[in-house]
Amino acid sequence: MVTNAMPMKNRSRRNLRWSTERVLAEIQQWRDKGEPLYANHVRLNFQELLAASIRYFGSWQAALDQAGISYVDVRKYRKWSKEVIVEEIRNLASQGFDLSFRSMALSQHNAMVYAAIRTKYFGNWRAALEAAGLASEEIYRYRSWDEEGILEEIRRLQTEGADLSSKSMDESSNKLIATARRRFGNWGRALEKAGINYSDVRRRKRWTRENLVEGILELKKQGVKLITPEVKRANPSLFAAACKKHFYGTWKKALRAALRSEKESLLVDPALPVTAMASEPKREAIQLAGLSA
What we know:
Elements: H1 8-14, H2 20-32, H3 39-45, H4 47-57, H5 60-66, H6 71-75, H7 82-94, H8 101-105, H9 110-116, H10 125-131, H11 136-139, H12 147-159, H13 166-172, H14 174-184, H15 187-193, H16 198-202, H17 209-221, H18 228-234, H19 236-242, H20 251-267, H21 274-289
Helix pairs in contact: 2-4, 3-4, 13-14, 17-20, 18-19, 20-21
């Protein structure tokens, strides 16, 4: 006997008892399946959800907002394919995004993630990453760390003179800072746990060639031996900045520039004895020779 009954899946949805919580749960389930969330698609495929959303939240957009889904991105719905997904992943990777599944699913790029895990495309997120030429082990490296592992990495970066401001870390070590925020609540708290004063980090000096030279000469005045291990211990930030390509490239070149600047200032100082001026070239040669110590 043939009937016009709706399939069980649709009938069960028609019989749902709607509430604000149920609407949000159904929206999130719809998203998790990788279904498009623009209103016309929902109207054609799950009209009851659209009607309930409007009834409880006033509009489809308001319901999406409450579900934590960006309506702007929904309106920018694009037709996905394996090629488009791979291109998007590579683009995000080049910008330093945390490409772990949890981070991406909670980001404004979640539509691409849920498209990628559909069986018609890659089936799971790791397969999508590998199709884009990315090693999933590296993507998930920070996520496997416990709190102490994260703190050790932060301390290592500080020792190397890295800029630990949140702006710089977002640009250069997005995976680390994203994981630290999840573990500790925010980046400042992670730094404090690592024994680093976040206020000092926020006031971090912005280096130029001129103040690098001044900093090197100040270390010399303080009696610090201007050799690599001593300078790295006394002022790791200065050492790291001096060795950057856009400044001096190597510590030896930075030291040479500082000593040259000192010599030039001595030559124009009328109060300096002639004998002291004559000894400067010899002193510079001794300083540079000490680099290999």
